[in-house]
Write a structure and sequence with these properties.
Helices cover 36% and strands 16% of the residues. It has 552 residues and is of the alpha/beta class. The two termini are 35 Å apart.
Length: 552
């Protein structure tokens, strides 16, 4: 309901939350040179933080998203003392407080600490290496590739006039040689051998090219790995903040947990350059470019057992057809992605909720590649289900062009999840990171915020820098967002249309052999789905996405 007096002076706690990872570092787009000398007096450092926080409050920000200092992440007592005082200062200023759960992104590594004493928690893939054989005189030999485990499974599939006869395949896993590879004597005729090994998912993933800290990460489907990440990350916050964890912290921001799909190296990729990215205090590692990159699926030690429980047949016997990508694999693909999705949900989402619920702290964040439907199966699974597991579903848009944001589906996915799973709020990580070379006026950025609210968002976490506008413009920017919240938040959403989220169709078409490019049919389906909603947006017909789960 519109109330003129409230609209004139909105509650500024509903203004944007500024993301401030570390007060030592110059904020994004900050033109002024703020020096943080390591040998500076603690009082000088606190004075700097106080000035920054008071300035955010004066500009109209509703809160901050913060974390313990990135240098010597989680293990620097001085950094915890700074955080302690920063939380008190934010509370005294009336600022809302969210906590960011990682040193850079993606979430799960705890700045490298999760794997430091538990390398077994690292994300793993099951790799497929194949060989064609047709003569007993030339036995099939496949060695374990560099950086891979010993042989896990092996199958020989006969060919009839060039066609693979999967119903006649032979399990030859027992023929592992002393080197961890396979040696098999062909009985005659044409055959294709499928050998399966595991390897750590670092090389050939975006982890080794991460923007800030190239490093390994955990398996988000491994319950022990995720629990270790949560304990390392949140137990110190719980201990240091005490009762303030419940009384002052509203939410936790998790950033792009992922299955770490295969992403080919760019032609100009330089591992030395990637490794040299700042900050130098991060745990990081050069990728080993000698490790060969074969097709893989995400893997955990208990995946085979879980798959059998879910679908009453063994996954291992269907691996050749799954990796080959033939039409016979549709059922197996659907079942595989269903199991992976469920394991992700139990290990990551549900354990996150269990960790935070005793403190009445909300779980929020966003996934990667929200707008690329064809990437969903191999990246994280059903996005509506994952976002619906959060108390505050979220998304990110790293650009500010209103015309581009107008047709983005990211906000609608997050708000649809909120409506489907009865969540009260929707968050966006908003910034101009990907189009910061363009000049955008305050009016254009306000327009972008209005479109995001129209698409169902009511909470802005801002990556916009601290020197993007004048002081007067910041006041206009934050008050505009607070007014949008006052007008639009808390209402009853009445959708005019439902748009089917085609996750199962995408999963049935997403082949293992080349998941980054995806099957052409999956890409076309993704584009078709995007076109439908863009046409609805052009006609200003509001809609929600709906999933198979909610249609049943």
């Amino acid at each position: 309901m519109f109330e003129a007096k409230v609209f004139q002076n909105p509650n500024m706690r509903n203004g944007p939350l500024q993301i401030v990872h570390d007060f030592r570092f110059v904020a994004l787009n900050l033109k002024d040179e703020y020096k943080w000398l390591e040998d500076a007096d603690p009082e000088q450092k606190l004075a700097h933080i106080t000035w920054r926080m008071e300035r955010l409050k004066a500009r109209g920000y509703g809160g901050i998203v913060l974390n313990v200092g990135f240098k010597h992440y989680m293990e620097d007592e001085a950094a915890w003392q700074v955080l302690d005082k920063t939380v008190d200062l934010a509370r005294d200023l009336g600022l809302r407080i969210w906590i960011y759960d990682e040193q850079y992104y993606p979430s799960g590594s705890a700045g490298g600490l999760t794997l430091r004493d538990h390398p077994e928690y690292e994300a793993q893939g099951l790799v497929c290496v194949t060989q064609e054989v047709s003569s007993p005189a030339s036995p099939g030999r496949i060695a374990s590739p560099l950086g891979h485990s010993a042989l896990v499974y092996a199958y020989a599939v006969p060919k009839n006039q060039g066609r693979l006869m999967f119903d006649q395949q032979i399990n030859i896993s027992h023929l592992s040689d002393h080197g961890g590879g396979l040696c098999w004597t062909c009985p005659g005729g044409e055959w294709k051998i499928y050998c399966f090994f595991t390897r750590a998912l670092y090389e050939g993933t975006y982890l080794c090219r991460a923007l800030r800290a190239p490093r390994r990460n955990i398996s988000v489907c491994n319950k022990k790995a995720v629990q270790h990440f949560l304990d390392i990350t949140f137990d110190p916050y719980i201990k240091k903040l005490g009762s303030r964890m419940q009384s002052s912290v509203e939410a936790i921001f998790t950033d792009e947990p992922s299955l770490f799909w295969h992403t080919p190296y760019p032609a100009d990729f330089d591992p030395d350059q990637s490794y040299s990215k700042l900050p130098t205090e991060s745990m990081r590692e050069k990728p080993n470019m000698a490790i060969p990159l074969y097709a893989y699926i995400p893997w955990t030690a208990d995946l085979e057992e879980q798959f059998r429980r879910d679908h009453q047949y063994p996954l291992c016997d269907h691996l050749p057809v799954l990796f080959e990508g033939t039409p016979e694999a549709v059922t197996t693909r659907l079942d595989f992605y269903d199991t992976i999705n469920s394991m992700f949900d139990r290990a990551y989402n549900q354990q996150f909720q269990a960790k935070l619920q005793p403190f009445d702290v909300d779980f929020s964040g966003h996934m990667i590649h929200e707008e690329r439907f064809e990437m969903h199966p191999s990246s994280f699974g059903d996005i509506l289900r994952n976002l619906g597991s959060m108390d505050i579903p979220g998304c990110d848009l790293l650009y500010s062009d209103p015309e581009r944001i107008r047709y983005s589906i990211a906000c609608k996915l997050a708000s649809s999840a909120a409506h489907l799973y009865r969540r009260d709020h929707v968050m966006i990580e908003a910034s101009n990171m990907s189009d910061k070379q363009q000049e955008f006026s305050l009016a254009q950025i306000k327009c972008a915020m209005a479109i995001e609210f129209a698409h169902g968002v009511d909470t802005i976490t801002s990556y916009y820098g601290e020197n993007l506008f004048s002081e007067e413009e910041y006041a206009q920017f934050t008050k505009y967002i607070a007014r949008l919240h006052q007008l639009l938040a808390g209402g009853i959403h009445q959708t005019q249309a439902l748009v089917y989220y085609p996750f199962r169709q995408l999963a049935s078409l997403t082949t293992v052999q080349n998941p980054f490019e995806a099957d052409d049919r999956a890409a076309k389906l993704s584009q078709s789905a995007a076109t439908i909603v863009q046409n609805l947006m052009m006609r200003q017909i509001d809609f929600d996405y709906i999933s198979d789960e909610k249609l049943r």
